[in-house]
Design brief:
Blueprint (H helix, E strand, L loop, with lengths): L1 H5 L10 H8 L26 H30 L1
Length: 81
Amino acid sequence: MLAGLVSFFASSSPDGLEAVAENKGFIDQAADHLFGEWALADYGEVGGIPVGVAGIIGVGLVLLIAGAVAWVARSRNKIRV
């Protein structure tokens, strides 16, 4: 929750590879990826979802998937014993 709230105060300046691409002049060679139009695909407001909300949703999805994988692994381990 903290990361979702604090992200509203983050810098809007590009960072990482995007900043290097701008500095070195190859930013125009970038192409959208296959999921570029999806609601949670990019930083910033995409599809009307602010970056903080998208981050909270993303963390929630990762926790749900990791929990499901752990539950399945634990269930399979009980069957073998």
